[in-house]
Amino acid sequence: MAIVNIDRITRTPGVCGGRACIAGHRIRVADIVVWHERRGYSTDEIASFFPGLTLVDVHAALAYYFDNRDEIGADLRHEEACAATPGVPSKLSEKLRA
Length: 98
Hints:
- The protein has 98 residues and is mostly helical.
- Helices cover 54% and strands 4% of the residues.
- The chain has one domain: Arc Repressor Mutant, subunit A (Orthogonal Bundle).
């Protein structure tokens, strides 16, 4: 695993589930990847979404992703599996069915 801009990307137990995120934010590298690679947002657009997020932060997140594709890919697959697994039904859904 390469170290990319260590002051920009952090992995801290208890913060964002210990997943890689932008330092000082709760924005995960995986979030940046989804917005850029899957939704087609430019790096400038992503940086404009959040106050305090810089273009350098976005590029550092993408660089981390390209150096750690297996790790970030596993994070994304885990989230997709969790989303597909039925969880606790919402109380609103239950009321609407009644």
